[in-house]
Amino acid sequence: MKKGIIIIVGVVLVLALIFYFDSRGSRSATRAMEPTAAGPVAAVVTNDLPQLPLTRLDGSRVVAKDLKGKTVLVLFQPDCDHCQREAVEIRENLDAFKGYILYFVSDAALPQLSKFAEEYELAGISNIYFAQTTINDIIQTLGPVEAPSVFVYSEEGRLVNSFIGETPIEQIKSSL
Questions:
Q1: Taking a C-beta distance cutoff of 8 angstroms, is the pair 24, 100 a contact?
Q2: Per the structure, how many domains does the chain have?
Q3: Are 86 and 160 in contact (CB under 8 A)?
Q4: Is pLDDT at 56 greater than 50 in this prediction?
Q5: Among 52, 51, 34, which residue's Cα sits nearest to residue 42?
Q6: Which of 83, 111, 118, 153 would be 148's cystine partner, CB 3.0–4.6 Å?
Q7: Which domain range does residue 21 map to?
Q8: Does pTM top 0.90 for this prediction?
């Protein structure tokens, strides 16, 4: 009888230790995706175009991963003053973006995106698209990034550079 109790206590102790170490590992993995004192971290960003579903202003749907050619993803919010300044800088430097397809991506409603495109004189430009996605899709594919964030991808869909937060246009242009 004593032997059975000792075995049961031993099994419970082993299970408790396994649970303890497993829960510590889960917490540290979660912490790696949180912003740090040095600034926000895009812990999920991979070296390829993300599997991010996008709904364009015309209602058509694409997945960022399927985009062809050199691509720039600009994550923004229409009411964000940093994003507005970034949009002005991009518009004033459109020549630098020749040969690239730009997608301005937000979780805002399509009418808000359309208004932003018009207001910042980016509507009707052949290589610029506005698209909607969800916050969950952004976090799952790119991680917790702040607006604006700019991701530059090569012709092969490989990440060339990422800029988290408002970035001087000269830095972005140096990655094109």
A1: no
A2: 2
A3: no
A4: yes
A5: 34
A6: 83
A7: 1-31
A8: no
